[in-house]
């Protein structure tokens, strides 16, 4: 309380202490929850609920993180002055967390550059490379619940603007803990930080618009920013690229940290796209395009008469497969006449095997990585990468992170080229199945209140591994806890089944969930027959995994 500069969290803590001293067991439990542990700094940086205490997101924790990161940057500066660019979105406290970071970085002797206003995460990722800074900080909780916020760190130099990975995360965490041993009131602050020029945003817009190869005004679409920061930047990019203006979901187009029209501001969540579907039905458009609140993810929906909403959201695997196919086609078209296409398609290990099938068909390299774009972005020779959680990296030379705006450009460009041949995205999905096989996937998310429950389930699966899943015999189980092949250690089980299907089990890196990913494919019969066979097998495996987890 004594070192907290925020009157809101200070008052919150004061009331808890008073209540606990008066005998409230609930208040005492709340204090234990906030103070018995510390919000850990890891490869995802920091992310948590905005509230008082070291196990929550607040100005004290952010100040410690900023000073710790500054110390880390000085340690690795090799005689030069380190630098950092700082961005922030429209969530509660994002602007003040970013300003605190700028002041503390400047006070620590780091050249600090604050982006000119709230902007999407991809603009910050771009700015790290564009400005040639040592690091970048983005204050965002992406698609988490409204009262969460976070602190995402990127590194320049040899890391080329990617998110941090081990051992940098542990090194930064150690610096933060050393800072946290003393009050933040003793940390030097300075207002000698810079505010980036608009030219940084302009450069991002120009580079992202250039992704379009065959823009057309013929494709009609709805766009939603989901109460986030995507629209201002995305609208300028789309106009510059030559696409027609979308029909906008007006209720969700402006930043609003309350996220009043959605229960959970994640396009993957049930109901999150209801307003978009209603707008699309009224406008009769061919596509629904949705960015999450910090615009690093993209969701796509297409007309589907069989759906109650009359639109169906494509899975991240479906969008990733189509964009990966587009990338392979472009690589082939751009290749010299005397050689084939070259480059790497990459996706996380829990994403669909469909991308590997594309890479094999085009003679491209393929690499699977651990979950997260901190890993996907580091694939050697990368030309396209994705992960099933609606993340796509379509222009690695511009942004080394998932980018929902550049992915929007690439997807609309694909839709434009198809429309020129009187084809739809639904047609392209069928063509994919006919050429590469149909790849079906499903996901089970088991949310828990006690994180220890996840450890218990993972330990049980390791000690008593299943012999079959849904009646399909298990042929092999890969335990990644100590690393596997070229993959670093990770708390993941990969279960291979005798029919070639695959089940992945891992704890979520950002939420209290155990996640199960199920993939099956079929290359026999027509596109419809392949789809039916693969989806039927996925349903059987999902039922089998639910029984195992129960």
TrEMBL record:
Transmembrane domains' residue ranges: none
One Pfam family here: PGM_PMM_III
Key words of the record: Isomerase, Magnesium, Metal-binding, Phosphoprotein
Alpha-D-phosphohexomutase C-terminal domain ranges (all copies): 478-524
Necessary cofactors: Mg(2+)
PROSITE patterns hit by this protein: PGM_PMM
GO terms under biological process: carbohydrate metabolic process; purine ribonucleoside salvage
Residue ranges of domain Alpha-D-phosphohexomutase alpha/beta/alpha in the record: 39-178, 203-301, 333-416
Gene3D superfamilies: Alpha-D-Glucose-1,6-Bisphosphate, subunit A, domain 3, Alpha-D-phosphohexomutase, C-terminal domain
GO molecular function, one term: magnesium ion binding
Family in the record: Belongs to the phosphohexose mutase family.
Record-given protein name: Phospho-sugar mutase
Lineage: Bacteria, Bacillati, Actinomycetota, Actinomycetes, Micrococcales
